[in-house]
Request: fold
Amino acid sequence: MKRHWIEFTEKWTPGPMTFWVHVPSPADASELSPPAPRGIPGKGYPVYYVEVDGFTFQFASLDEIRVCIESLGKKLLPNTLRLAQQRGGDADRHWLRKMPDETKPWRYRAKAVKYLEKALQDFEKT
Reply:
């Protein structure tokens, strides 16, 4: 089953990928690159969900969806130890390591990326 939706929260809520995508600026640690999303007046901050065959991805920004598509779209998954060293985090806490094993084969990821791209297009329209 595939579906995608948006829920809104009062405050910006970091998701599983936030630490790895929204990096503090060297000049000002309170500023992130790419920037954190802005709230939508009257609604709040969007949290994006994409479900593909029983697994639900959660994103705190559209930038996170783009990074997910880029990472999962590679035939060989990126090395989380190398990614953690680049970012200065713990490889065991990397979002790719936290994904269930059934989501890691290329067959699943190819299908997921295709649907994530469709969901991203829909989210960008709202």
In short: The chain has a mean pLDDT of 93. The radius of gyration is 15 Å. The chain has one domain: 2-125.
